[in-house]
Recover the amino acids of this structure.
């Protein structure tokens, strides 16, 4: 039923649309009108809510959609996925490339939100999706859905996209990209394969899918599993002698050691790396506020060294804490992926305080159209509530198929990440056997080298970001926005 006012405004909008902007028919009920902690003017429209992908189960995926602050009618639409499995894409929204920088409140009060000058919404519209159901603010009324895996997650996310573009048809013609990080190294290519197949099968609506991006992405048990030892050697974390010994004992293959002396040497490597921050070897990794202050107090390091690896975000709010995620050299293998709790820790070195406070505030939940805590429980940055199976195998055949179909791809790596080290991503991209079309060279932001890149035939590019850790835009926001916009534009990076 249309009320008078909305009819009048619809007519006005229609009139306007013919000469100014295209008519945005996005669901009005999803529009966000205010956000606790933010007192400024929204630089573009934000929408958020649920898309039901299975009525009978009550399976609902939550999205937060930031319209481009540039030219929304033309700019690409990018789906962003954090990994885990089990981690919420609010990690990206709050800590990496979202429209706001969150300023920590004093003694546990609510954070203040400031506009992020390096938001990816400067050059694209971004959909932050919590996936699969059970993660972040997404949920199902039938808990059997929390037993899931790569293939079901990709199929569900594809359903989400089809339904989402039905609700936001004005964005259907924009170039569409899929991007993500870490375990999304599996989500992105598996979803891209579904999307590509949907397009081939003529599934409506037809998505204008152009390509994808993966950052420090889990890809292949063997390549990722063999990446750590050469990384540790190159980064001066293990000695030349130990490297020679472990190389000889393991014959250069570390991912599945059977030889006892190889296992022995690898244990020594692990021991030497044990207390590093796995997400950025330059950064300290802290237990708790007490230890944090004790360390900085006692540190004999010059202050410039103490600051190595710190983020250059204007408001760095994420302190780092002690602990680890994937045990070292435990690449993602076929079958059930252990939960964070089973790995014996919370998400390591990662403080999620600001996001946890904000997303578990009922006024915030209401304003971002999320279910209240009593309905779906507390928001956690990474959940142990889902039972997740890695059932899609290596991603290399996916990348082969997608690139041969003409989709563009960017495989980027923060070069100081030890969780999914760049050495593995560099090796598997090279292993595709495509001709090098842009030989290894530095890439720049302004007059500074921001990292290195090698481009291949079939539009697959490998790129490092110098000095960045696992979550690249968190450490290097300006560099990240630079390569992101160049890639989306189809420009050389
Ligand atoms: C949940 O889904 C499973 C699988 O479809 C079904 O067997 C079961 O009956 C459902 N449970 C409820 C409570 O609807
Ligand atoms: C393990 O590998 C080393 C080096 O190749 C070799 O000398 C040794 O005999 C092997 N040990 C076993 C138990 O196979
Ligand atoms: C790649 O494409 C081939 C041929 O279309 C298909 O048989 C195969 O299943 C695809 N593999 C993946 C992983 O998508
Ligand atoms: C690479 O991408 C460009 C721009 O989208 C396109 O014109 C070109 O055909 C692609 N090359 C290959 C080998 O797919």
């Amino acid at each position: 039923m249309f009320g008078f006012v909305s009819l009048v405004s619809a007519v006005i909008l229609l009139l306007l649309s013919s000469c100014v902007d295209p008519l945005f028919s996005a669901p009005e009920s999803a529009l966000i009108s205010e956000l606790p902690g933010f007192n400024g003017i929204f630089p573009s429209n934000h929408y958020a809510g649920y898309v039901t992908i299975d009525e009978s189960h009550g399976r609902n995926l939550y999205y937060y959609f930031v319209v481009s602050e540039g030219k929304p009618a033309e700019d690409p639409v990018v789906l962003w996925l954090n990994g885990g499995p089990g981690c919420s894409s609010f990690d990206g929204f709050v800590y990496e490339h979202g429209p706001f920088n969150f300023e920590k409140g004093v003694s546990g009060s609510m954070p203040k939100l400031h506009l992020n000058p390096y938001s990816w919404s400067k050059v694209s519209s971004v959909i932050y999706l919590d996936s699969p159901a059970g993660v972040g603010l997404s949920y199902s009324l039938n808990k059997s859905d929390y037993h899931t895996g790569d293939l079901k997650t990709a199929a569900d996310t594809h359903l989400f996209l089809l339904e989402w573009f039905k609700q936001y048809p004005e964005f259907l013609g924009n170039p569409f990209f899929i991007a993500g990080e870490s375990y999304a190294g599996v989500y992105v290519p598996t979803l891209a394969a579904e999307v590509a197949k949907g397009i081939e099968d003529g599934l409506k609506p037809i998505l204008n899918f152009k390509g994808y991006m993966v950052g420090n992405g889990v890809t292949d048990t063997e390549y990722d599993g063999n990446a750590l030892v050469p990384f540790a050697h190159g980064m001066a974390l293990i000695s030349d002698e130990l490297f020679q010994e472990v190389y000889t004992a393991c014959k250069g293959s570390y991912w599945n050691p059977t030889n006892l002396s190889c296992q022995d040497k690898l244990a020594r490597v692990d021991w030497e790396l044990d207390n590093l921050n796995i997400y950025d070897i330059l950064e300290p990794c802290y237990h708790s506020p007490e230890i944090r202050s004790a360390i900085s107090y006692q540190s004999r390091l010059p202050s410039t060294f103490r600051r190595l690896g710190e983020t250059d975000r204007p408001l760095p709010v994420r302190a780092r804490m002690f602990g680890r995620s994937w045990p070292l050299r435990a690449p993602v293998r076929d079958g059930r992926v252990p939960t964070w709790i089973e790995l014996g820790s919370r998400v390591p070195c990662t403080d999620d305080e600001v996001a946890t406070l904000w997303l578990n505030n009922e006024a915030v939940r209401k304003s971002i159209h999320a279910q209240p805590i009593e309905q779906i429980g507390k928001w956690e940055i990474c959940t142990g509530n889902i039972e997740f199976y890695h059932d899609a195998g290596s991603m290399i055949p996916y990348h082969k198929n997608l690139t041969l179909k003409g989709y563009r791809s960017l495989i980027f790596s923060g070069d100081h990440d030890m969780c999914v080290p760049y050495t593995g991503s560099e090796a598997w991209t090279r292993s595709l056997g495509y001709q090098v079309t842009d030989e290894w060279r530095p890439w720049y932001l302004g007059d500074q080298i921001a990292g290195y890149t090698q481009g291949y035939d079939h539009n697959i590019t490998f790129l490092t970001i110098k000095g960045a850790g696992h979550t690249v835009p968190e450490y290097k926001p300006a560099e990240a926005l630079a390569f992101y916009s160049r890639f989306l534009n189809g420009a050389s990076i």
